[in-house]
Specification:
With 126 residues, this protein is mainly beta. The chain contains no helices and eleven strands. A hairpin with a 6-residue loop joins strand 5 and strand 6. The chain is globular and about 40 Å long.
């Protein structure tokens, strides 16, 4: 079992930046593909970014490509999401997730992830 804890959310003005962190428990973090998703009120959870176990492959949604960067530090059991150029439409609860299938390419569907954090709120004011 893996426990994921997100942090780093908050209120920021449009054009600003945030760095979200997701700390994982357990010894197998380095073998997991990790993803970030977000959910705005009244909307479905949507894919944001994902990174393979060795950071060799990253995937981004079209809506954040060029503005957000996913990274990981396996020595610290932590995955990050750097969000630059934030827009009001980026407002959502951001969740990190872990895919325990070793070696699998990053997935973009929420139902392909096995473990989830509790989320961190990001609010972007105009």
């Amino acid at each position: 079992q893996v426990q994921l804890v997100e942090s780093g959310g908050g209120l920021v003005q449009a054009g600003g930046s945030l760095r979200l962190s997701c700390a994982a428990s357990g010894r197998t973090f380095s073998s997991y593909t990790m993803g970030w998703f977000r959910q705005a009120p009244g909307k479905e959870r949507e894919f944001v970014a994902a990174i393979s176990w060795n950071a060799g492959i990253t995937e981004y949604s079209d809506s954040v490509k060029g503005r957000f960067t996913i990274s990981r530090d396996n020595a610290k059991n932590t995955v990050y999401l750097r969000a630059n150029g934030l827009k009001p439409e980026d407002t959502a609860v951001y969740y990190c997730a872990a895919d325990r299938h070793f070696g699998r390419a990053p997935r973009t569907r929420a139902d392909e992830y096995d473990y989830w954090g509790q989320g961190t709120q990001v609010t972007v004011s105009s």
